[in-house]
Amino acid sequence: MAMAKKAKIWTALGVAMLAGAGAAEAGTLQSMPPIYNPQIILVDGEGGEGGGEGGGTSSTTTYALQSTDAKAYSYDATPQIDAYINLAFKSYEKAADDAAVLAKVVDAFLAAPSDETLGAARKAWLAARPAYLHTEAFRFYDGPIEAVEGEINSWPMNEAYIDYVEGMPDAGIINDPKVKLDVDSLEGINQKQDEADVTIGWHAIEFLLWGQDLSATGPGNRPFTDYIAGKGNNDRRREYLKLVTDQLAKELHGLEERWEFEELNNYATAFKALEPREAIGRMINGMAILAGYEFMSERLGVALDSGDQEDEHSCFSDNTKQDFVHDLVGIKAVWTHAKIAELVTAQDPALAKRVDGLFADTETKINALGDPWDQVLAAPKDSPARKDAEAVVASLQALADGLKDVGNKLGVLVLIPTG
Amino acid sequence: LLNNRTIGFIVALSLIGFAVVSGEASSVSVRKFLSSLPVTEKLGGDTTRPVEAQNAFSFQAANAAGKHQRPFSFGNRLFNTNWVEAPASVKSFDGLGPMFNRVSCSGCHTKDGRGQPPETGSGPMDSMLLRISIPGLGPHGGPNPVPNYGDQLSERSIKDVPPEGQATISYVEVKGQYADGESFSLRKPSYKIANAAYGALPKDVLISPRVAPQMIGLGLLDAVPEETLRGLSDSDDADNDGISGRMNEVWDSVRSKLAVGRFGWKAGQPDLINQNSAAANGDIGITSRFHVDENCAETQSACAASFKSEDLDLNDEFLEKLTLYTSTLAVPAQRHFDDPQIVQGSRIFRDMGCAACHMPTLQSGPHPLPEITNQTFHPYTDLLLHDMGQGLSDNRPDFTASGSEWRTPPLWGLGLVPKVNGHQFLLHDGRARGFAEAILWHQGEAAKSAQRFKAAPKADRDAIVAFLNSL
Q1: Mutation test of the interface with chain B: which of A11, A42, A164, A415, choosing the one with the most B Cβ atoms within 10 A?
Q2: Per-residue pLDDT averaged across B154-167, rounded?
Q3: pLDDT score for B121
Q4: Gap between the Cα atoms of A227 and A231, Å rounded
Q5: What are the pLDDT digits (tens) for B357-375?
């Protein structure tokens, strides 16, 4: 009997605790507490773990915090939504154009392989990379990128799955004539057995142009002779490089079309038709998850903690610092060019100013990072180079927290996998 | 400056202590107490996240401390790491094999999710494995290893070391009928090992197939006090309900003593740090403080002769971060909690007696990680072994668990497996194609419940499945 009495107390307490939790969260929001809402979905917050289901909006998706006050969070988001669609379209258009230039330069390299033409192809890869990084702020919700991200920017990758590596001269698809070389075949086995068994995308091309980074000070140094026609498996390597480079440009062009507002029945049209806060929720989650998870943890924090020099995003080309710089440019573009800053300023000028400051601070700290990034990773734990890197982690955390506050202000839930 | 919540925790802590002390370890009272607690959509208590997309199993506990963000992220990195053969240029992550099943944790637990049998029935298993043994007791009372092979079939190996053999599965369809005349078919698997590379396998080899389970909420289960399990167990069925859950007694490699089993399909591991270090060693060939030797059986000379690093592959710091990661993956919230069909399904689930083993509510006690300490949560398991009948038996004893005894698996997250892993193959070897088949396989202590399910009208069966899909 005594047990039953205790159980009752416990039951009441459980309810009180739940209510308490709601009240605690409400303190950081507007006057009315949000109701706990289990219907939020986010697509793919894990770096490199691409693939998965197709894009398109789902009717069960909701980012809007609920309020019993009908007038809460009522604001006009039309300028933001229009500007965001335009920004995404222009960003993918530029990324597709730059990737098409890369494909052309690769064609020229394959037509006449030499140190010079290989150098030009590497330069073209580096030059095409920023425009793509600017689009990474359009990830982490049900946008069109989610269906194809695994085919565009998968990382980390097991390079021996593609081609030879030190000590394994016969490794990889290129040296296995049984594997058919066409887009369907490569996409079919991309990340099939293991998430790091990457066959296509930016980093596959990077590995094909640079080779393994075995140097303590510089990037990889694959010889152009790997691409002389007729020798060993070179013809398969030539075919492979051409295939994946053309495919990258094609995929990016496809994303550009999904965001072009004039096209009927594409993602831009669906985005435009969203409830305002569902659209705003996607914009802010994309920024916050890139800043506070993918960039801060997956690409920075984890690499700093592993103590391995080659545990970096663009490890073959040593271009990782540029990746950092341009990811931030992309996030900031949503804040400014998609006019989120304007919207927040109208509601809470102090918050908008604080977030402006967080962007400026993060930018300064990223610019101060050592380059190449693998030298930072090789530096001792308490070295200035490492401290600079930890400062970037801290500033990204602050930025992500600031963006969460922005979400609260605008009535949308921001869900960061580790925050 | 204590707010309501903090005070709630302090009171909750003292109450749990009180409940445990005054529970007198009677199965009836502990069970009754836990059954009286309200069930909410927050299946993982305060760790719960309202997520339901493909990455739904990969979120950090909602209540995680800020300082755990870095070690969690690094643990996630370790979980996804493809280990490579030593010596390699990336020293932190070499030491694969010589024998292994997959090169990463996420190879089997893809997206922190659930494994499945190979689609074709042949070819190496990608997210399940075969445990093997011969009759009799092995070290510490565990399974008796197969001479020259050990206790797990390694279908993969590093270069120059032959893999142990290849698993093959074949299925026979067995037709049946519900009371209302609707027919169903269950596929009964049988397992063989081909290309045995280290001598013929003994005729009496015992094979236990196991798929990789989803990773959510494991820390909460780890933090359930042993007293609770003791209180729930009822090996002699003293309460006469036909259910006689009991604890496995297994080897604790961390503390070098026998301990209550809790993790794995047969509760063969006592806690998460044991589970993680044993899986790293058995499945990937990674050594750590608690499993210092490579997994080479006595006559596997190429395996024994392969390069051995002097350092442990997984150092203490890495193992600790990996364990923090596997302890604090958030449980996704239940979906459509108030939907009438789901409410009805939940009621029928209890009425049919399913909740006797798949207990809706457990409570965690003290734990070094505050996010999983003193939580009330809804895993739908009692963490105990139950006799499931001959149909599901693998005929292979595992410590004190018999062939037909299996640990009640948690049901949380199962409704999301189609989204996360693109399939819904259930039970220990993925033989069931969806919830209905899984229920129909239940025999032994669960025979009555399965019988009720078979006899129930279609609307009731659909409601149960809808309920399970909402978890």
Answers
A1: A42
A2: 92
A3: 66
A4: 8
A5: 999 999 999 999 999 999 9
Q: What angle do CA B280, B286, B291 make, to 5 degrees?
A: 80
What span, in angstroms and rounded, lies between the C-alpha atoms of B193 and B191? 7
Instruction: Confirm or reject contact between B377 and chain A (CB < 8 A).
Output: no
Chain B segment 319-338 residues within 8 A of A by beta carbon are 333-335, 337
Residue A112: left if φ>0, alpha if ψ -120 to 50, beta else—which one?
Answer: beta
pLDDT value at position A89? 98
ipTM above 0.85, yes or no: no
Per residue in B408-449, pLDDT (tens digit) is 999 999 999 999 999 999 999 999 999 999 999 999 999 999
Q: Show the tokens assigned to B380.
A: 């739908």
Check B110 against A195: CB less than 8 A apart: yes
Which DSSP letter does residue B177 get?
Answer: E
Residue B425: half-sphere exposure toward Cβ, Cα within 13 Å: 22
Cβ B106–A195 below 8 Å, yes or no? yes
Task: Kindly list the residues from chain A whose CB atom is less than 8 angstroms away from the CB atom of residue B126.
Answer: 193
Alpha carbon of residue A108 to chain centroid: 30
Q: Which of A60-69, A263-272, B207-216, B228-237 has the lowest average pLDDT?
A: A60-69
pLDDT at A67 over 60: yes
C-alpha to C-alpha distances, A369 to A127, A276, A292, B196, nearest whole angstrom: 20, 38, 18, 54
8 Å CB contact of A46 and B12: no
Rounded to 5°, the CA angle B190-B194-B198 comes to 130
Question: Chain A within 8 Å of B72 (Cβ-Cβ)?
Answer: yes
Residue at A388: amino acid letter:
D
In the structure encoding, which two tokens stand for residue B279, read together?
Answer: 């899986």
Distance CA A82, CA A85 (A): 5
